[in-house]
What does this fold into?
Amino acid sequence: MTGQLNTGRAFVYGDGIDTDVLAPGHAMKLGPEGLARHCLEAIDPDFAVNVRPGDLVFAGADFGIGSSREQAAVSLKKLGVAAVFARSFARIFYRNAINIGLPAFVFAHEGAVSTGDTIALDLIGGQVSNITTGKDYPFAPMPEHLRNMIEAGGLMQSLKARFGAREATS
Amino acid sequence: MPKAATLAQKILARAAGLAHVTPGEIVTVTVDLAMAHDSSGPRRWGARLEALGAGLWDPSRVVIVSDHYVPAVDAESAAILKITRDFARDFGVEHFYDMRGICHVILPEHGHLRPGLFVAGGDSHTTNAGAFGCYAAGFGATDMTAIAATGETWTTVPETIRVEVSGALGAAVSAKDIMLALCRELGMGNHFKAIEYGGGAVRAMDMEARMVLANMAAELGGEVGLVEPDETTLAHIRAHGGEADEADIARWRSDSDAPYERVFALDASELAPQVAAPHSPANSADVTAHQGVAIDQAYIGACVGAKLSDLHMAASVLKGQKVAKGVRLLVAPASAKVTEAAAKDGTLAILSEAGAIMLPSGCGACAGLGAGLLAEGEVCLSSTNRNFKGRMGHKDAQVWLGSPFTVAAGAVAGKIIDPRTVLAERRRAA
It folds into this structure.
């Protein structure tokens, strides 16, 4: 999150994008890269092919509802998605996203973004600028303790610091 | 006077070592019990713990259950199960259940639960343990790794929604029907909330029915689903080798003036059997609204829908009946103990005489793994808890949810039908 400005294309979906759509059970035995190729295939077979590093996903309510599978967030991250915006998030998905270093924000501006729009993103200031339409939209940045975790590179990096520090003092 | 609190707040305060916690507050809690399964547990923990140079914070507080890839159907699933087995041995986890049943059913079956515990599980239906008055929440693999290594996690103190169920359930109506109706009425977006169930209908339920309520709090979006413990809870715990104290009943309950965010009332006596149409548990309606939908498969399985009482419900419909031509009825009992009890009491004979095909105990087709998956365009009526697109096989398969009564009735009729009519016809014929 050090580069405040990220520019990418938007992929826009509706309500209730669940973990079975993000990480289908039938592909769960594949490794992370293999599973990511099936991400969102049930509703958009072209997503995994077309998405590029730095692109953004926008969705409606209840993003990530369903199972606890972290692969739902990991698949988006593996495909290079820079952040996810949704009207609301399922609790476990939200925690997983932060833990693996995928920024996730509540964003309630209906119709602000269409698939294919170019978006400039200010993660720290909390602003989505739709370059295609020329309009700006604010969003609430993350609470500090979560931002720290993302900045550290996710929960694993935070833990490494904790266990590393323990070793150093013992 | 201490501040009034809900059961969820009281457990979190205890786990955080604080006198009182307030909704919205972020607290660090100590975990009493960590539960993992073969899909999200050791196979994900191993490399992470190694990278940290950490072990388990307390192997005696860790329960590992192999229930997702069981039994192995190919080299990959065999490898996942071996990783799980080796991990349990190498890290000294004594509470390891290898292919003995589904984790949420294993925990109470083997006396691991007690009111007031903070339970962290690597599965979204960990909420199931809330039936015993535990604060039991699901976590992803990295969160669970942190818990396994440190015995701690953070959580936001939730608001509590109280669901008050009055009246008595009618014939062929069950806790599952309450939950399908609640998915419609409360929606699936109650993220980060605690759902607490009470009222006369809940008090009258046995623990298996209460587990259905707590289990499907996950479908409501809840962090936890809770039922305040009573004599039924303590008797069940003791009968399964667990520890419980009479004082737990008075200690682990919401105060009479607890600050609920909302109280939702439901009259069980007014409730008809429910079915949820594809592809969401919230697409539910009275079964009478969808009668006649032809099915290819009837599935009785999963933590929520294949305990002994669920098999009893199915058997009450299937006794002396035959599964309709062209329909397959698959039954995957929730645990080996359930199978054993159902064999002893004659339930398995009723099911198999009706034409049921018995499957191994495990998450199976409910998790999109194992036996019983669907082809493109096929229709399944299922006693499981979720019917998201693509969950149970092909993305264009259609999964309908219902109670074991409703699924068994559908298997006999070859289509969705009101189980009350099937039971009434049976009574007339008898």
